[in-house]
Write a structure and sequence with these properties.
This protein has 247 residues and is mainly alpha-helical. The protein has one domain. It contains 10 helices and no strands. The relative contact order is 0.14. The longest helix has 31 residues. Helix 5 crosses helix 6 and helix 6 runs parallel beside helix 10.
């Protein structure tokens, strides 16, 4: 059992490295990774009268959420369009291993494009991060959960737009009721209940604690536990959707 688990993890790592090497070092992807955080920050910051420090949790949450969930959608849909995905299906790997590999690749991309701009802005603004270690953990857990969400929508898509359209329909409303732009307590009761079952809310809350010290360690641990559960659920659903799309 343990031997098979290690073997499957190696196969997932190989798939992840293949995606990173082929897709993530390309010029368009690198440019998106560099420009997206800057544009997202300016959109979030300009006109709100916030300091850079106050805006950092929102910037980090939006960057990791959109970055990690978008890149996997693009790579998987492109592979299915070109027919190269059939090569992976011919390999002695399970569909869950394929999903895990692509989720890991998306996780690494989201982690990287979030840590770099957030770190630079924290240094430039002389902001003292409340807990650098918890910040890294929070971004990592947020990235893996976001990547899993992207996999659900891309698992059965034959073209990029088939996955991106429903993904944006889900992601954009999340932005406005997750605590990024306004406290969740200021929302109507029904929206508050909805907000607390969304992964983005747990990302924002954990980043606020790690960056600004808002909240407490118990809430942070609950957020991390929720993101782990979301990740596991997302990958299982993605693998099932991929299996159904192949029948």
């Amino acid at each position: 059992m343990r031997k098979n688990t290690v073997k499957n993890l190696r196969k997932a790592a190989y798939i992840a490295w293949k995606d990173v090497r082929i897709y993530y070092f390309s010029t368009p992807t690198v440019m998106m990774g560099l420009l997206f955080p800057v544009l997202m920050f300016l959109t979030f910051w300009i006109g709100r009268g916030l300091s850079v420090s106050e805006a950092l949790p929102g910037l980090a949450a939006l960057t990791v959420f959109f970055g990690s969930s978008s890149i996997g959608v693009t790579t998987l849909a492109l592979e299915r369009t070109k027919g190269t995905f059939d090569t992976q299906l011919a390999m002695p790997v399970s569909l869950l291993t394929i999903i895990l590999g692509k989720t890991i690749a998306s996780f690494l991309y989201g982690l990287t494009i979030t840590i770099i701009p957030v770190g630079i802005l924290a240094v430039v603004s002389h902001h003292q991060v409340a807990s650098p270690l918890l910040l890294l953990i929070s971004i990592a857990f947020s990235a893996i959960a976001s990547a899993g969400l992207g996999m659900i929508l891309s698992a059965s898509a034959k073209h990029v737009h088939e996955a991106m359209t429903p993904l944006n329909i889900i992601r954009i409303p999340m932005m406005f009721i997750s605590g990024i732009f306004a406290p969740i307590t200021s929302l109507p009761a029904i929206l508050q209940y909805i907000a607390y079952i969304m992964p983005l809310t747990h990302m924002v809350s954990s980043l606020q604690y790690a960056l600004l010290g808002l909240g407490n360690i118990q809430i942070f641990l609950i957020n991390m536990g929720a993101l782990v559960l979301y990740t596991m659920l997302f990958m299982i659903i993605a693998a099932k959707r991929l299996e159904n799309s192949l029948e």
